[in-house]
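Researcher: Next sequence.
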Amino acid sequence: MIGNLTMKLTGNQLNRVDDASTASAYGGGFEFKDAVKQDNEYAYDANGNLTQDLNKGIEDIQYNCLNLPRLVKFKDQSTITYTYAADGTKLRVEHKIGSSTTRTTYCSNVIYEDGTAKCLLTEEGYVSLDDREYHYYLKDHQGNNRVLVNKNGGVEEINHYYPFGGVFASEENVQPYKYNGKELNAKKGLNWYDYGARQYDAALGIFTTVDPSSEKYYPTSPYVYCGGDPINRIDPTGADWYKDSDGNYHWAERGGYIAEGWTWVGSSVSIEISKNRYVNYYENGGIVANKPVNTFDLIASSPKLQNLFLGENSLLSEASKSRLFNGLVARGTDAIARPIGEFLVWNGAGELGGPLLGKAIGWILGRVMTKVNPLLRPLGLGNTGRFISRNLTEKLAMQEILANPAAGEIIERMEPINDPRWLGWRKMQYVHTGLDGNKTVIHYVGKWEGDVLKAVDDFKFK
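Model: Next structure:
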């Protein structure tokens, strides 16, 4: 076993750990090393960040303004230095161990070692650039990389894990991406998994910094991994879908609104919103289609979608874009026709039975693109009614008609409008039928010249 540990806490923070077992590492695995036996083996700063771990020989850890470690200093003067982008994306790690210095640079999905490109990360594995060979991960249900195989199916690495992510055994340890697919930094005995928002010490089953959402979960330690239940849960990267007790879905960023009772779903979800109509999300970007689909597969087959999800107007985080880009590199792209009636993309999740968590922006795709005048947008001359949606059904109805105003009908019984802003225009109506049979009615005004709709405005819910 990994150890027989007794932990002494000061509040929620670790103070001391004693291991009653003898050395137990097996077959390339790692274990907790009880290097010292004293109080205050661990120390924390005012933000709750770990600053000392005497059992690892760490005398100081310094953090940046995002509470991400920027310097780890060992008693023997070895150091690990981290460099990040402004949004917290890791760019470089420098290890100075004795007289040796190694610099690892992360440039999107390409990893450099001391200035030399070493590997190209893909969704399925990686390409080693020195020999241009493909390597593929075989994962379990939690996304743990269990087996690494080459293009011919030959086994290159096998990993076994303890429930909390410690490597129980590893045959032919050739690459660092292990538990949950996260990068393990094992140099100098650090043994931290990089979860992006926080570093995770699997030998102890705790994070090194506080969960930004900890105030939502007062009964749970802000350092604990997966609520202490790693068998049934995995810890997402901090931006995922959740489901509340009423069955509503919510998208939440780490540190954002995560209510008590929400359960984690994952980074992708398909939500049925009316008959033969689904919102299929990749993280917080979604595609409305006539059936549940794998959103990544759609993006991989559509250059238009790639531009929307990866472009400068995308509301995906840089980390999300990087993950998507890595997968697309592996999959390759083409512009084949799709048997799915996709017609709308939302860039940012809408209102799903909870607070508005993102700005929704619609685009027209596929066949609909040829039917809609791209200049047919609300003129913004004023509003005479409620135009803010109150739920997902209303939001979808409004997005649909804004995307294709010609889908509505003239209300023939009503005379042309005499409001000077839209003098002579016609009152129009669009009816959206939801999954429960309820109808959402939207009124707006349109300027017609013969049989051609030239302008629209004043969209509102009836």
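Model: The chain has three domains: 5-227, 236-371, 376-462. The longest strand covers residues 439-449.
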